[in-house]
Specification:
Blueprint: H1 2-49, H2 52-63, H3 69-88, E1 92-98, E2 104-107, E3 124-129, E4 132-143
Length: 145
């Protein structure tokens, strides 16, 4: 009877160890997957925010008058660029830019332009040009989940 209990105990210990090993492998794979997901999000964000044309035109958009031809040109260039980004990256369902009063000054969803946005869940940047600081304005990504 003692040998049976010892055998059963060692079998249970082996099963427990095998289950732990499998869970450990699954957790490691999931951790790596989450790490890759964060890296992808960072790349997507940098793709949009570091583009020189975006940086140059966003300054015009945020500091110009709506009737200024430069403002209208910047609006068109940025709209086309951001729409192309959302087409290339379908997970980026909408991208919009807020001014300091939280008003949407540009959006890939034209109907939202001029609306105000609550700052919850907004990713923002404070630099428009590399090595040059600019006021805090906001860029939002809405993702499909």
């Amino acid at each position: 009877m003692a040998w049976w209990e010892a055998l059963l105990s060692s079998v249970l210990e082996a099963l427990k160890q095998a289950a732990f090993n499998r869970l450990s492998v699954a957790a490691t794979l999931k951790e790596e997957e989450i790490g890759r997901w964060f890296e992808d999000q960072q790349r997507d964000f940098l793709l949009v925010t570091q583009h020189p044309e975006l940086q140059r035109n966003i300054k015009i958009l945020l500091s110009g008058k709506i009737t200024d031809p430069n403002y209208l040109a910047a609006d068109k260039i940025l709209s086309n660029y951001l729409i192309s980004v959302t087409q290339t990256k379908p997970a980026l369902r909408e991208i919009f830019i807020l001014d300091r009063s939280n008003q949407i000054v540009l959006s890939t969803d034209k109907q939202r332009k001029g609306n105000y946005e609550i700052l919850a869940n907004v990713s923002y940047f404070e630099r428009v040009e590399l090595k040059r600081y600019f006021r805090s304005d906001f860029l939002r990504f809405t993702r499909h989940w």
